[in-house]
Amino acid sequence: MVQSKRLFDFGVASAGLVVLAPLWVVIAIAIKAESRGPIFFRGARVGRDGKLFMIYKFRTMVADASARGTRITTRDDPRVTRVGKFLRRAKLDELPQLLNVWRGEMSLVGPRPEDPRYVALYSLPQRAVLRVTPGITGAASVVFRNEQELLAGSDWEQVYIHRIMPRKLELELAYLQRRNFWTDLFLLGQTLWLVLAPHRANESTQEIY
């Protein structure tokens, strides 16, 4: 399965990079027109077997966002630009991760890669998610599509660490128990559906599997 999954990922990522190139140009122009700074955001994430890699996204915040706050985006985060808000709602900020998929650092479907700061808090059973290649989308990505809306108030990090992160890992571990080509296709379809119909973003785990 691993080899066929990699071939599928590489083929889709290659086609996506070509077909979506005009859209990338439009997004890049919009980002640069609103605020100074790079077009892309690069952040350290923990990949398969605990290996660090740099994840790519379109920049959705002001250039000096890291100096103004945390590494997680919270609800009504003032660092997010107007263009960034649109890109986040439409999930277009995630498109550059096709580069990560093309390079083999990520898969189209798999556990979402986490910041090293939070991976350090994983229990031994939870670290099982690091045995596979992380994905652009997955079970937890679908359920927590609007995760930043849950992160508000001064205790947002405690909410993330003690409530959201454990639930996300529970979903990812459940996915690993039953993953195959068809579950991956289903999650890809589910993700596309939720992007096109955002009112369906709060699907339950039962509806996903």
When the domains are counted, the total is: 1
The overall pLDDT average reads 89
Would you identify the regions where 5 or more consecutive residues have pLDDT less than 50? 201-209
Count of strand segments: 4
Structural class, please? mainly alpha
| Oligomeric assembly | single chain
Beta-strand residue percentage: 5-15%
Please give the alpha-carbon distance between the first and last residues: 20 Å
Helix content: 40-55%
Shape: globular
Give your account of this protein's structure:
The protein is mostly helical and 209 residues long. It has one domain. The protein has ten helices and four strands; from the N terminus they run ααββαααβαβαααα. It has helices spanning 2-19, 21-34, 65-68, 82-90, 97-102, 116-119, 139-143, 156-178, 181-196, 205-208; strands at 40-46, 52-58, 107-109, 135-137. A two-stranded antiparallel ribbon has the order 1-2. Strands 3-4 form a two-stranded parallel ribbon. The longest helix has 23 residues, at 156-178. The chain starts with a helix and ends with a helix. Residues 201-209 have low confidence and may be disordered.
Features:
globular; disordered C terminus; 10% strand; 10 helices; mainly alpha; 209 residues
Write the layout of secondary structure elements.
Blueprint: H1 2-19, H2 21-34, E1 40-46, E2 52-58, H3 65-68, H4 82-90, H5 97-102, E3 107-109, H6 116-119, E4 135-137, H7 139-143, H8 156-178, H9 181-196, H10 205-208
Summarize the structure.
By secondary structure, the protein is mainly alpha-helical.
